[in-house]
Amino acid sequence: MIEVNNLVKYYGNYPAVNKISFSLSEGKIYGLLGPNGAGKSTTMNIITGYIGATSGSVKINGFDILEEPEKAKKNIGYLPEIPPLFKDMTVDEYLLFVAELKGVKRAERRNHVDEIEEKTFVSDVAYRLIKHLSKGYRQRVGLAAAIISYPKVIILDEPTVGLDPKQINEMRELIISLKKNHTVILSSHIMQEVAAVCDELLIISKGTLIARGTPQELEKLQNKGTVITYKLKGQKEAIEEVIHNDSKISSYEISENNGHISVSLSTSLEPDEALERFYLLFAEKKIIILESNALKNSLEDLFLSIVSNDKEDE
Questions:
Q1: Closest by CA position to 34, among listed 190, 172, 243
Q2: For residue 72, what are the β-bridge partners?
Q3: Strands 288-296, 226-233: parallel, antiparallel or unpaired by DSSP?
Q4: Which of 44, 56, 158, 282 sits in a 20 to 30 Å window from 168, CA-based?
């Protein structure tokens, strides 16, 4: 559905995008991740035909975005971070206008817009001026405009920025529903955001694609397991003996604080398995556990680790 081949974009002497290549298939939601300035928005702007590439090619449903822009763009719906809405129009007027621009036939336009309004849950505000809508509703209207004429590809740039938790959940449900009939690209620098809705993730750093896979596959790339923190009461030597003799512990820190001993350790075990294991080991040495907390390293931790390693390589 989408083929990106050796994409390069220079701003002056700065390579905002540096030889990125990937292909995306139908019926999936892809997350495009990276820190601010990584090249995500530039890549999406080239894919949509908003800006040209220095070199390389982009094909949408078989059409080259540079050589056949009109045919390629008919297959794209785009929701930028700030939707380009005409705020003095009602929702219905605006969507009918977009439908006309996108070539929806006059005889079909009314029914088509009604269907889109229902899908994106804006029917109840269809006759209100856009300038009087909340941020959440404006995002929905922007999404409605993006999916008018049902393009093959939907590209969403930070679609939940500025929304409250309820609005974020509603927007996520809308995005998930799109993959039944569309290929969706979701750009974000928030790992939890894309992990909640995406089938596959692409991580970009300094204009380069540095990792790709499902959330589960990426977790396995550099899985540091579980981090457990303890507040213990007992002999420090006995605690150190438990830690030194356990092959499941990859690293640890230990300190004495106000009559107790604080321990932070990393292990390859899952949280429940680790807590049970170390409970038994400490009990054998008559070490009292005053507090314990186990935290599984998240995809966000992995993302930060990947980006950090990429910088070190440079």
A1: 190
A2: none
A3: antiparallel
A4: 44
Residues 20 and 208: beta-carbon distance below 8 Å: yes
Mean pLDDT for the stretch of residues 183-198? 83
pLDDT digits (tens, 9 = 90+) for 12-61: 999 999 999 999 998 899 999 887 788 888 999 999 998 999 999 999 99
Nearest C-alpha neighbor of 138 from the set 194, 87, 193, 188: 87
Our CA angle for 220, 225, 226, nearest 5°, is 150
- DSSP, collapsed to helix, strand or coil, labels residue 74 as coil
Per residue in 233-250, is it b (16+ CB within 10 Å) or e — as a string? ebeeebbeebbeeeebbe
From CA 184, how far away is CA 159, in angstroms rounded? 12
Cα gap 116→104, rounded to integer Å: 12
Model confidence at 313: pLDDT above 50: no
**The two three-digit tokens of residue 219, written as one number:** 């977790």
- Alpha carbon distances (Å) from 65 to 51, 53, 62, 170, 261: 10, 10, 9, 32, 62
Cα-only R_g, the chain: 25
Chain length of the chain: 314
**Terminal C-alpha separation, the chain:** 33
Number of other residues whose CB lies within 10 A of the CB of residue 83:
19
Residue 314 pLDDT: 47
